[in-house]
């Protein structure tokens, strides 16, 4: 699972409506998988990213390459776009779990695929 995907996931357990984003990683096993650099895609994704959540998640995973604040010249800064590309498109979580900070529900990740399905009583 790419970190760009993680930045869009939240807990959907019944009555878990606050503090359910971002999900926290536990026992995450990372893998770098090369992807083609596409600055236009990154520029279009910037407004959709929850920047603070992304930075906190990367720090939790031991990645400290992203700046704490989104640079003002982010769309023209190729060096920044390459760092962003590496972080959100080439860094994959292959195994582990995501934990909801509110209800502590666990979403397992196996072979890079997060299991976001809920049991009937959780819906």
From TrEMBL:
One of its GO terms (biological process) is tRNA methylation. InterPro entries: Trm112, Trm112-like. Gene3D superfamilies: 2.20.25.10. Signal peptide: none annotated. It comes from the Eukaryota. GO terms for molecular function: protein heterodimerization activity. Interacts with TRM9. Belongs to the TRM112 family. This is Trm112p-domain-containing protein. It comes from Circinella minor.
